[in-house]
Amino acid sequence: MKADTAVARSSLSVALITKLTLCWALLTAMVAALLLYVDYQEHKGDVERALLMTAEKDLSVMASHLWWEESTAFEWQVERLIAQPHIDYLRVFDSNGTRVERGVAPSDQALEYSWPLVYRDAGNEYMLGNLNIASNYTATKASMSEHLMWTVAAWLCLCASGIAISLWIISRELTTPLAKMRHQINVWDADNKPVFLSTPKNRHAWSDLETRYNTMIARCRERLSCMDDDRRYAEQASQKKSEFLANMSHEIRTPMNGIIGMASLLKGTDLNDEQQEFVEMLETSSISLLDIINDILDFSKIEAGKLELEPLELNVFELGKDIENLFTLRAKEKNLQFHCDIDKDISPLLIGDAPRLRQVMINLVGNAVKFTESGEVAVGVSSVSESDDSCVLRFEVKDTGPGVPFEQQSRIFNKFEQGDDPTAQSQGTGLGLAISQQIVHLMGGTVRLESEPGKGSRFFFTVRFSKSNVPLATPVEAYLFAGAPMLLVDDSRLNMRITTAQLSNLGCQVTCCMHPDDAMSLIEERISSQYPFKVVILDKLMPKTDGFSLATKIRAQFGKESPAIMMLTAAPDGLDKPRIERAGIEGYLGRPYQFNDLKSHLVRILQQRQPTLGVVRSTGQSSSLAGLHVLVVEDTKVNQRVTEAMLSKLGVRVTVAENGQQALDYWQKQPFDLIFMDCQMPVMDGYQASRRIREQETRFNRTPIVALTANATAEDKDACLEAGMDDYIAKPVRKDDLATMLKKHTFTSETQLLTKS
Question: Where would I find the Response regulatory domain in this sequence (predicted)?
C-alpha cells in the first residue's frame, strides 16, 4: 500500500514538473527567438545604411580619380571600401568591361547596389562607368552566431532556474500538501467511518477544499451511522422473522404430525369404504397443507439467503419412476397422455441434491398436469455432455396446455406471481416456480420457458452433476458386500444397467444374464467353483418363462447348494405372496425402488447366507426390525401415541419419556437400541439431554440418537448434530422415515458380529 502511494505521488510530481518544464522552455525559447530575430533585422538595417552611405561619401571621389586617371588613388579607394565589414563585393565596370573587381561574388540573398560613376565639370557630366557593391551579410552572420551561442546559454540557465523555482513552488504549495492529504483520504476509524481531512498549516489556499471535503465527510458519517442503525434493525427483524418462522413451523408441524400420523394409522385399521374415503381425504388435505408450509419455509430461506444444497447419491432413473408413480394416475383422471423418457446412456449413480431436484420436477410436472385439459404431458431427461467424472443433463417438461403469453413469461418466475389463468389463484401460493428457479440457480442452471398461447409450454433447465464413485455401504455392511458374487437375470437392458451400477457401487461382483435359459448353467458352473453365487436377482416377467418358474427350477435342481433368490418387479402384486413362499424367494421388491430398500434386502439375505463372516440373526421375526427396544422422548401426548403406534407396527418395543430428564433417567437404568429425541421440551430439552448422554457414555456403548423435531431449518439440523445427535427427522413423521432411521443406525440390533476364537 505504501509503495502504491509513493508511486502515485511520484507520478503526480513528474507529470506536473514535465508539463511546467515544457511550458517554461517553450516560452523562453519563443522569447529568445524573437530577440534574435529583432537583432538580425537591426543588423540588416545597419548593413543597408552602410552601403547607402558609400554612395554619398565615396562615389564622387572615385569618379574624380578615374577622370584624372589617378590609378594609385583609385586603387587605394577601392581597397578601403572592400575592407569595410559590411561590403563583401565591389566591381567597377564600363562599356568596355570590368576594370576592377574585389571580394566574393554576391549570393542570391545578398544586398546589392549599383551607381553610375559621373564626373561633373563646368556644368557638364561625363559618364565614366558603374560602381556595383554587395553584402553577403558575412559580418552579420558572424555576429549573430556569437549572439545565438550566448542566447542559448542564457536560455538554458534561465530554464534551469525556472525549473528549480517551479520544483520548489510545486513541492511546497502542491505535491507536499497533496501527499499529506492523500494519507488522510480513504482512512477509516474504529467505527468503520471515514476520517476528517486536515490540510497543512499556513496553506490558506487549501482551506476551502478542507471545508468542503469535511462537510461531505460529515454527511457521509451521518449517513453511515443511519445505515448502521438500519442494518442492526434489519438484522434484528430478520432474526425475529427467522425465530417466528421456526416457532410457526414447530407449532404447526406438531399438530400436523398428529393429524397425518393418526390418518396413516387409521388407514391400517378395518374401515368401510366411506370411512376409508374420509381418511384418505384427511391425509391428502393434511399433506397439501404440509406442502404449503414447506413452500413458505423454503421462501423464508431464500429471502435470508440460507437455502443450501446437500449433495448426496442421486439416481435419475429412480427420480423418473417417482414422477411416473405420482402423476400417471392424476393424468389418467384428466384423460391426458403422460410419459417420462430418460436417456438410457445416463450414468445411474450421480452426486446431487435428490430431494431438491425432485421438488423442482414435481412442481413443474404438477403445474403441467394442473393446467393442461387435453393432450399430453411429457417429461424428459437427456444427456448434454459427459466427461470421466461429471455429466450435464437437461430436464424438460412439455405440455399441450393453454400456454403463457410472452409478456408474462418472465413474470411467472417472480414470488407470489402466477399466470392469468382463472384457476391459478385458487390452486397455489405462487411460490412454486420462484422456489424452483432459486434451487436450479444453486445447482448452476436456470429454468427457461418456451411457450405459445394455445399450443402449450416447455420448461427446461440444464445442470452439471458429478459421477458417484464412492461405495454406498457402511463399514460393517462392506464386509457383506465385498466381492460378493451375484447373478442378475433380467431381459431389460435399462433395468440391468441401473441395478448393476448399484450393486457394483456396493462392492459386489455382478454377472448379467439376459436369457433365463442360460441362468441354470451359470449357477451350476459357479457352484463347483471357489466363488459360487450368493444371490440370484430375478425379474418377475421375462419372455418364455417368468421369475417364479425359474426360482422353482433353481431350488429343485440345486437344493441346499442353491444361492439366495431375490425378485425385482415393475408389477408388484399382493397375490404373489403364496408364490414367493413356494418358490423360496427370500426378497421381493417392486420397481421403482429406493436404493436403500435394495441394500436393506440384500443385507438381510447376506446375513443369513454368510455365517463365515460371524454374522447371525438374533431374531426369527418376519420383520427385520422386530425385537428392537427404542426410547421415544416426546412431551406431546398425541405425538407420543402416534410415534409409539408406528414403531409398534414395525415390531419395535417402545418406552416413552416426557422430557429430557426422564429420558436420561431411563437411559441410565437400561440400554436402548436407539433414542428418538424431541428437541423442545419442558424440564430439559433434547439438546441438553443428548449432551448429557454423550458425556456419560463410552465409545463401546454408544446409543444412536435421532432428532424428532418440528423445526425444519438448516440451523436446527446443525444444532442437533452439534448436540451429539446422529440424525434428524422433521415432523410430521412417517412410518417409513422411522423404519429408515432404524435400519440405518441399528445394524447391531438385528445382527451381532461374533468374535472368532
Answer: 485-606, 629-746
Residue 743 has a pLDDT of 81
Say whether pLDDT at 8 is over 50.
no
**Three-state SS for 255?**
helix
- Spatial distance between the Cα atoms of 390 and 399, rounded to a whole number of angstroms: 30
**Cα angle: 501, vertex 503, 509; to 5 degrees:** 105
Q: Lowest-confidence range among 62-76, 219-233, 256-270, 446-460?
A: 256-270
Write out pLDDT tens, residues 204-216: 667 777 778 888 8
- Whole-number Å distance between alpha carbons of 631 and 742: 12
Q: How far is CA 734 from the centre of its chain?
A: 36
Please report, for residues 27, 412, 567, 692, the alpha-carbon distance to residue 552 in angstroms, rounded to integers and kept in the order given: 114, 58, 12, 55
End-to-end CA distance of the chain: 71
Give the burial string for 174-183 (b: 16+ CB within 10 Å, else e): bbebbbebee
- Which distant-in-sequence residues (6+ apart) come within 8 Å of 264 by Cβ? 283, 646, 734, 735
SS3 of residue 360 by DSSP: helix
As a whole-number percent, the residues of the chain with pLDDT over 70 amount to 85
Beta carbons of 110 and 89 less than 8 angstroms apart? yes
pTM of this structure: 0.47
pLDDT, tens digit, 9 for 90 and up, residues 396-410: 999 998 888 887 777
Alpha carbon distance 650, 743 (integer Å): 11
pLDDT in tens, 122-144: 778 888 888 888 887 877 777 77
DSSP per-residue string spanning 90-120: EEEEETTEEEEEEEPPP-TT-EEEEEEEEEE
pLDDT of residue 458: 92
Q: Tell me the CA distances in angstroms from 408 to 411, 413, 417, 423, one per residue in order.
A: 5, 9, 10, 16
Band (615; pLDDT cuts 50, 70, 90)? very low
User: 334: which DSSP letter?
Assistant: T
Query: Residue 642 in contact with residue 261, Cβ under 8 Å?
Result: yes
Q: Are 538 and 570 in contact (CB under 8 A)?
A: no
CA dist 488 and 6 (Å) reads 76
What distance in Å separates the CA atoms of residue 635 and residue 710, rounded to the nearest whole number? 12
